Amino acid sequence: xxxxxxxxxxxxxxxxxxxxxxxxxxxxxxxxxxxxxxxxxxxxxxxxxxxxxxxxxxxxxxxxxxxxxxxxxxxxxxxxxxxxxxxxxxxxxxxxxxxxxxxxxxxxxxxxxxxxxxxxxxxxxxxxxxxxxxxxxxxxxxxxxxxxxxxxxxxxxxxxxxxxxxxxxxxxxxxxxxxxxxxxxxxxxxxxxxxxxxxxxxxxxxxxxxxxxxxx
Length: 216
Description:
Elements: H1 10-32, H2 43-62, H3 70-85, H4 99-121, H5 123-127, H6 137-172, H7 181-214
Helix pairs in contact: 1-3, 2-3, 2-7, 3-7, 4-6, 4-7, 6-7
C-alpha cells in the first residue's frame, strides 16, 4: 500500500534555509570563541551586544529568578528575525507568513507559560484560575487559550500583510516607479517591521510568562 504523500512547501524550504543560516552562524561563533578578546571588536562585538541585550531584556521583565530562560528567548528572537529578513533575498518566502510556522512558535511559549507557572507558583497556579470568583473559571481558561492565538496571528498577519502590499506594489506600479517606492516599502515592511515583530513576539512571551510564574 502506498504511503501518504509528503509535501515540501515553500515555507518548509525557507525554514530549512533559516535553520541552516543559524546553525552555520552558531558554528562560526563557537569556533571564534577561542580567539575572543577582553575588548570586543567586529563579530565578537555584534555577538556580545546581541546576547547582552536579550539577557538584559529577560532580566528586566522577569527578574533574576527566570534569567536562565535567556538562551531560549535568544533562539526564538534570532529565528523570527532571520525568518522575517530572509524574504530580502528575493529567493525565499518568509516562513512567518505561514501559520504552520507561527502557531508552533506560539505553542512553545504557551507550554512554557504553564510549565513555569506550575514550577514557580505550585498550588497558587491553579487557584488563579478561580480569581476573583470561581464563576470566572471559564473566562480565565478562554483568556489563557487566547494567548497562543494572539501571538501566532499577530506575527503571521503583520508579516503576511507586508508581503501582500509589496507584491501589489510590484504588480500595479508602472515599471519606472518600481525602482523607488518599493525600496522605501522594503525598508519599512522588511527591515523595520521584521525586527519589530520579532521583538513584540519575544516581549509578549516574556510578559505572559512573568504574569503566570511570578505574579502575586
